[in-house]
Amino acid sequence: MPTKTIYSPKYRRFVQSLRALRERAGMTQSGLSLQLGWPQQRLSAIEAGARRLDVMEFLQLIGALGLSPEEGIRIAAGTTEPTSKSPRSRRRAQ
What we know:
By secondary structure, this protein is an all-alpha fold. The chain is 63% helix and 0% strand. The protein is built from 6 helices and no strands. It has helices spanning 9-24, 29-36, 40-48, 55-64, 69-77, 87-93. Helix 2 packs across helix 3. The longest helix is centred in the N-terminal third of the chain and has 16 residues, at 9-24. It is globular.
């Protein structure tokens, strides 16, 4: 029986990249969860690899981290490193 993707090294690297983006943006789990309207425990479980992101959560999360859907897909596919500016600085730059 194939291993679930949530346990794959690729998925683990993906959620670690999302966590690194959040931390580089200077955001706490509590602050980002509040912005997303999620319980903090949901984001904690996602970052710990205990809960898989669904597509809509993925889009909400990467948007809150200042990424486009295309940038998020590239990170998920492992074809690029997470280098997003913080959401605040990105808004100022636009």
